[in-house]
Each structure stands twice: as structure tokens, then as C-alpha cells.
């Protein structure tokens, strides 16, 4: 049992070291989610799913502050990354978490793609457009 716990903790360590990028907004979570969806679709990408964690928590009589994950992608960007290293598929499509902190500040958060995929065989030049898209989309959603 102990070796399994140690192995799991070692696997989790790289994820903890990844850089989380937070973009603050004056919008509410639903407004920021709508703005992000519009920005994604306006950029020619597609929203694959929206996960309302607050609503899901309510189904088990638990409470969360507003917390929604938007999952989206553009095959023109993601496909070459997965061609370089199929393991990148575990991290694609991209995700942005739109959430409200304890002080009422709404943020759009995402992992830096270069760091998230740092252990993979993906050339940096394939990740730069993804990082730029995430910067632009979250800035547009933040207003």
C-alpha cells in the first residue's frame, strides 16, 4: 500500500509545479463564461463542454462558490501537438476555469501550456500559438 501511495504522490508532484495563470475580471462567473464562449467561437475554435461544478455539487447537497470549467479546442492547433506526442491528448483540449474566490473576485485560470506539456516531446513552437490563444481568449473574456 505504501509504495502505491508514494508512486501516486510522485506522479502528482509535476502537476503541482505547473504554472497556473490567473486573469481577474469584474464580470460575474456566468458573464465571464459567456464572454469566453463568444471569444472561443469568434476565434474559430469550438467549445467542447462546459462543466458547472457549483451545480454538480448541489446534486449531492454540497456547496461551492461559482466555479465553471470551459473546455475548448481548435484542431488546427491541437492536432500537430498530438502528432508530435500522442500523450498530449491527456491535456487537450484546453481548459479555462472561471471561478469566484472567497472575496468575490472572479478569475479565469489556466495552466501554462509550455509547463503543462514540458515533459512531453512537443516542440515549443507548437505550444506558443496555444499560449497566445489562451492569453487572448482570457483577456477578451475578462473585458
From TrEMBL:
First and last residue of the signal peptide: 1-17
Domain DUF302: 51-113
Superkingdom, taxonomy of origin: Bacteria
Annotated keywords: Signal
InterPro entries: DUF302, TT1751-like_sf
One Pfam family recorded for the sequence: DUF302
UniProt protein name: Uncharacterized protein (DUF302 family)
Organism: Hasllibacter halocynthiae
Organism phylogeny: Bacteria, Pseudomonadati, Pseudomonadota, Alphaproteobacteria, Rhodobacterales
Amino acid at each position: 500500500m505504501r509504495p502505491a501511495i508514494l508512486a501516486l504522490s510522485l506522479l502528482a508532484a509535476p502537476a503541482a509545479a505547473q504554472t497556473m495563470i490567473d486573469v481577474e475580471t469584474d464580470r460575474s462567473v456566468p458573464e465571464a463564461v459567456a464572454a469566453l464562449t463568444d471569444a472561443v467561437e469568434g476565434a474559430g475554435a469550438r467549445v467542447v463542454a462546459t462543466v458547472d461544478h457549483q451545480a454538480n455539487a448541489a446534486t449531492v447537497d454540497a456547496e461551492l462558490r461559482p466555479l465553471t470549467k470551459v473546455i475548448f479546442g481548435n484542431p488546427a492547433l491541437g492536432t500537430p501537438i498530438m502528432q508530435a506526442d500522442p500523450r498530449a491528448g491527456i491535456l487537450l483540449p484546453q481548459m479555462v476555469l472561471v471561478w469566484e474566490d472567497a472575496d468575490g473576485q472572479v478569475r479565469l485560470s489556466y495552466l501554462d501550456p509550455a509547463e503543462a506539456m514540458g515533459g512531453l516531446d512537443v516542440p515549443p513552437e507548437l505550444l506558443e500559438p496555444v499560449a497566445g490563444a489562451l492569453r487572448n481568449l482570457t483577456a477578451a473574456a475578462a473585458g
